[in-house]
Amino acid sequence: MNKIVLSLFMALSLIACKEETHKPQEKPVVKIGIIAPMSGEYAHFGESMKVAVKMFEEDDETKNSARRYRFFIEDNAFNPARSAIVAKKLIDVDKVDVIVTLSSDIGSVVSPITQDARVIHMSMATEPNVAKGEYNFTASTPPNKNTGRMIEELEKLNLNRVAFVIQNTAMMQSVAEQVRKAGKNGRITIVSDNAINSGERDFRILIHKILEDKPDAMIVQLQPPELQIFVKQLREINKDILITSVESFGYPEDKTLFEGTWFSGAVVPTKAYVAKYKEMTGSDATNYSELFYSCFEVVRHAYTSEDKAKVINNILDLKMKSFSIGDISFDEDGMMQTNAYLYTIKNGQMEVMEE
User: pTM to 2 decimals?
Assistant: First the structure.
């Protein structure tokens, strides 16, 4: 090779090296799997979740984050057995780094799977056992605060004799435990404690039995569709008894059956979040999408390393002001610590009674 050719070769090599040096580095990707109801009674939560994903992606572009976030959405139709199947698919096939789930029923099934696979799991659940294991976290208002706020209001209204109807699901059991604890502590008198199974449809005999005990109020901890069926049959028999719950009345898409009722619920979305959500959808009914968004915010703030142990410690140490729900922190057990609020149903929509 003569000197001219050699010089030209070296020059081209230097240019290539320079271009390679200045080539922007590809951002590491964090894969987030979401298990949510996209069909069935709770499909409206899944649709709102998709809006939260879009909002987060748009917001993340403006922040020029150090990482990119890729979402994998799986429909579980709010079915625990299907949730276990899609969780394994997200882990084994999609190789996700994080899984986000909705509710204690689903979180209870997914938590053992994510713990064994060493995949971080954030669940919008109230059941403390969902957070069992270092890889699992809950991302909703704890049951003691939610139930405590409802009991406080019953005490304030002097509604001391309470009938209680609970559905045999993980979602409702943590509430049941707190209500019974309030009864043992003398804060309320539980005159009737009743459990039903999913799939039951005729509650009229049970309702008559409950009303015989003359309760001042009835706590109704049921899921759709049993919730709507029970309340409709109750109102056909007695239109006046006060009914309340922890979150349940906010679950149905059509809330007109619960018009004028009050109940305790999880965190309130920030005004900025509601405004952005309404700008994108035309509706201010956020359907708990702010909790999905808050999980994404936690992941973004905690993922400063590829080391899972470091990410977990970051979550536990996190004290941040989020765009979606305000203050966020976790206790040593991995449960998000947020306040509970009172809601009412007005014109078919959830409305905060206080902030």
Answer: 0.85
